[in-house]
Amino acid sequence: MSPGNPAKEEHAYWSPYVAGLGIGLTLLLTFYIMGHGLGASGAYTQLTAKLLQRVTPDHAQANTFLKDYLGESFWRSWIVIEILGVFLGGLLGALTARRFRFQIERGPHAGRGSRLFLAIGGGIAVGFGSRLALGCTSGQALSGGAVLAVGSWLFTLTFFLGGYLFALLVRREWL
Amino acid sequence: MMAPLVPHEMLTPELGLVVALVTGILFGFFLERAGFGSPRKLTAIFYLQDFAVLRVMFTAVVVAMAGLLLLGEIGRIDLEMLAIPDTYLWPQALGGLVIGLGFAVGGY
């Protein structure tokens, strides 16, 4: 089995419908107990707000967007603990499936440098977009989608539109 | 027992944090099992080679949606108390587009 070739590891992944059922039941359980769904990008907003507060408290307090995130302590933020769990769950999954390894996974024609450069660029775009939409694929598409929020479904459509459009530009990076 | 439990004060916010850890672990585990730790598998949908992203995502949405409706119908959950994301059409449309860009370029 060659490293970084998902096609050859395919047998180890679950059927998408079984994995989807697992995520759906997890999401249902979250709604049942908490009244809200799962998220991801909100944890980074928490981190941003708390780091800014550490460095320059006045500036953080004066920021009309970030000041709403200063109330509760970082380790008592629901989404921060949830994302910590996602990290642990992902690690557990990779270890038990013997998929864990250190690597920079990339397409067969992509260099390490360009992969990392595009990863940072893509990360900045996802960070910016998720604040603009007040959520990412977890908070909007998944959780908002399950409660039939109009904006969340619009988000899901434009997410795939953006993905298909811009994937054309970076075809060499992945194939 | 009336759900949602924490908003109905059947469960304290402190226990809610334990729930955050447990549901997070489950979420991360299933995402990994779906193959979503691999940026190549995630981006393959945009080259029409692997539709796992769509299948996993929509299965999850439909299961959660049907479960909520069913629980609401038999009176086990107060659907009025669920958090529904506010609608801001242009920011959400543009945000989705930008995240789609970032996802295709960055791989996650």
Structural class of chain B: mainly alpha
Shape of chain A: globular
Shape field of chain B:
globular
The succession of helices and strands of chain A, N to C, reads HHHHHHHH
Quick one: which chains have the greatest interface?
A-B, 103 and 79 residues
Percent of residues in helices of chain B comes to: 55-70%
Oligomer: heterodimer
- How many E strands of chain A? 0
- How helix-rich are the residues of chain A, as a percent range? 55-70%
Share of β-strand residues of chain B? under 5%
Outline the secondary-structure elements:
The complex is a heterodimer of chains A (175) and B (108).
Chain A: H1 16-34, H2 41-55, H3 57-62, H4 78-96, H5 112-132, H6 137-146, H7 150-167, H8 171-174
Chain B: H1 13-33, H2 39-43, H3 52-73, H4 89-106
Q: Your description of this structure?
A:
- The complex is a heterodimer of chains A (175) and B (108).
- With 175 residues, chain A is mostly helical.
- Chain A contains eight helices and no strands.
- Chain B is globular.
- The relative contact order of chain B is 0.11.
- Chains A and B meet through helix 1, helix 4, helix 5, helix 6 and helix 7 of A and helix 1, helix 2, helix 3 and helix 4 of B.
